[in-house]
Write a structure and sequence with these properties.
Blueprint (H helix, E strand, L loop, with lengths): L8 H27 L3 H19 L4 E10 L2 E2 L3 E7 L6 E3 L2 E5 L3 E8 L5 H17 L4 E6 L5 H13 L2 H4 L6 E4 L3 E7 L5 E10 L7 H17 L10 H5 L6 E4 L3 H8 L5
Parallel strand pairs: 1-5, 6-7, 7-8
Antiparallel strand pairs: 1-2, 1-3, 3-6, 4-5, 8-9, 9-10, 10-11
Length: 268
């Protein structure tokens, strides 16, 4: 059943809260760079910043941590941000290292300080695709503090699909969010299968959506892809927040050379 998108004073208040948190993230980013130049430490700090913000929005039964996903197929590489259900026991935990049962998986976010090249971006996409083989359902996202242009990112995604069309068309990330630049959300049905067009795009900044709206979009994506359940009242207007109604979003179609090959694997 389609949810009615409504704007209320309460949801507008939550957007204001999101704007405040987005400004807080940016302030933390700028402050840290005044003191620290080590890339590894900066990256870990960025993960901590975003984990803290997400935890403020998500239900109490969802835990935000970092670590690994274990399944009968093996164990994943380390996930920068790991979202998982509290009603499952963690398989192992010490300090910041958590190992979860893949049945408790809700989502994972790869955090990057700077995805400056197509090669680095492709590695992040491939990492999320490998995790999807273990956890098909759930949210698979990339969040970058700075990155290559949207056009270059899309061309890299298409090259990733071209390398193995029948497999990779359904293995692209659900969300790609680059702070202050753009927000890409996959078009998937309620079973998690890729649909056409493959993405919706929002530009962040002047003429597009705000940083707070992009942050709300990331939170809404947890419900859409990870929890696959009814949105809370304060996210019922997220389509308005994301600018779909006001025309700020744009559908991203498959490239001509991929359209026929991938459409055969997509249900009408």
């Amino acid at each position: 059943m389609t949810q009615e998108r409504v704007t209320t004073k309460g949801s507008e208040a939550m957007q204001n809260v999101a704007e405040h948190y987005a400004r807080e993230l940016n302030a933390q980013f700028r402050t840290l760079n005044h003191f620290v130049s080590h890339a590894g430490e900066i990256g870990r700090a960025h993960e901590t910043f975003l984990r803290g913000i997400l935890a403020r929005f998500l239900p109490q039964n969802i835990r935000v941590s970092s670590g690994f996903v274990a399944s009968p197929k093996g164990t994943s590489r380390q996930q920068d941000i790991l979202l998982h259900r509290r009603d499952f026991s963690t398989l192992f935990e010490v300090g910041d290292c958590t190992v979860i049962d893949n049945k408790s998986f809700v989502g994972a976010i790869e955090i990057k300080t700077d995805l400056a090249s197509s090669n680095e971006f492709c590695k992040a996409v491939e990492a999320q695709a490998q995790l999807r083989e273990m956890c098909y359902s759930g949210m698979h996202a990339i969040y970058a503090w700075d990155a290559l242009s949207c056009d270059t990112a899309l061309n890299t995604l298409w090259d990733f699909v071209r390398s193995a069309p029948t497999k990779n068309y359904d293995s692209m990330p659900d969300v790609i969010c680059v702070r202050g630049q753009y927000f890409l959300m996959a078009n998937r049905n309620r079973y998690g299968d890729q649909q056409s067009p493959p993405y919706h795009l929002w530009h962040v900044g002047e003429g597009g959506i705000t940083e707070g709206q992009a942050l709300l979009g990331l939170v809404a994506s947890v419900w859409k892809f990870g929890l696959n359940t009814v949105l809370p009242w304060w996210l019922l207007s997220w389509h308005q927040h994301m600018g779909i109604v006001t025309g700020k979003s744009r559908e991203i179609p498959w490239p001509e050379d991929l359209r026929n090959s991938v459409m055969s694997g997509i249900d009408p």
